[in-house]
Amino acid sequence: MIQDHEIDYKIFGEEMQYVEIELDPQETVIAEAGAFMYMKDHIQMQTIFGDGSRQTDQGGLFGKLMGAGKRLLTGESLFMTAFTNTGTNKSHAAFASPYPGKIIPVDLSKVGGKLVCQKDAFLCAAKGVSIGIEFQRRLGTGLFGGEGFIMEKLEGDGMAFMHAGGYVTERTLVPGEILRIDTGCVVGFTKEVDFDIEMIKGVRNMIFGGEGMFYAVLRGPGTVWMQSLPISRLASRIFSYAPQHGGSKEEGSILGGLGRLLDGDNR
Question: What's the CA angle centered on 71, arms 166 and 54, to 5 degrees?
Fold first, then answer.
């Protein structure tokens, strides 16, 4: 049985983290396009079609097309980037988080060889890890799951790294234990966890609660990772403060106008 590449790593930073991967000669790490931060001598960078895993390689061109095409459904690029140590000594490559939050390292061999995560959570992984698509089976989840309907699955026995926004909590659920979470706050979960969508009870809660109409229901056993600041929530807050959309939420209307005047912005 061919194993995924075994890589060592170190995570740096607090709110804006990056992970430095240590590669032995001929070891490779794959990453999402745009995650690259730096690389040391003798690291060769190559853009690949799909994830370069054994599953797509064994399928030939058609398998690569299918594997890469599925990534379009998750909003990701058709291509990924592979970084290989072509030297005779150890070398390093680093990958940065795209927004404030935490990098989550997961050894897939210790979680049953499969991890399901949000479609924008994957950062990088050892070569051999397969990055595919995970459709939720239930009709209700598909119709109302929002961010949780189409998810990514990471399969293999190597290291994989996810990124999440804000503070990250890892929770281990015992058999039958239920956890209700905002759909955007679910980062990932192990394959044993049962994932479903449930409607919030009460018309007043649905209309005036400000939390949407549905939340995710996860039932143990298994491990769940949650984030306190989903990127969708962060983006909506920034969007609401943008001047071209009214600019009505300034920090104090008088000071806000005075600040624009002092800055020479007379619009």
Answer: 105
Give pLDDT tens digits for 231-240: 877 777 787 7
Question: Is 22 domain-assigned?
Answer: yes
* Least confident interval from 8-17, 54-63, 192-201, 221-230: 54-63
Reference 145, options 186, 104, 205; nearest CA is 186
Tell me, yes or no, whether 155 lies in a domain. Answer: yes
Q: What's the CATH number where 200 sits? A: 3.60.160.10
Q: What is the DSSP string of 33-99?
A: TT-EEEE-TTEEEEEEES---HHHHHTHHHHHHHHHHHHHHTT--SEEEEEEE-SSS-EEEEEE-SS
Q: Is 253 exposed, middle or buried (0-12, 13-18, 19+ CB in 10 A)?
A: exposed
Q: Is residue 254 part of a domain?
A: no
> At residue 24, does pLDDT exceed 80?
yes
pTM across the whole model: 0.78
Domain assignment of residue 19, given as a range: 8-247
Q: How many beta carbons lie within 10 A of that of residue 66, not counting itself?
A: 14
Burial of 246: CB neighbours in 10 Å, binned 0-12, 13-18, 19+: exposed
**3-class SS at 234?**
helix
Report yes or no on 255 lying in a domain: no
Q: What is the pLDDT of residues 152-189, one digit of tens each?
A: 899 999 999 999 999 999 999 999 999 999 888 999 99
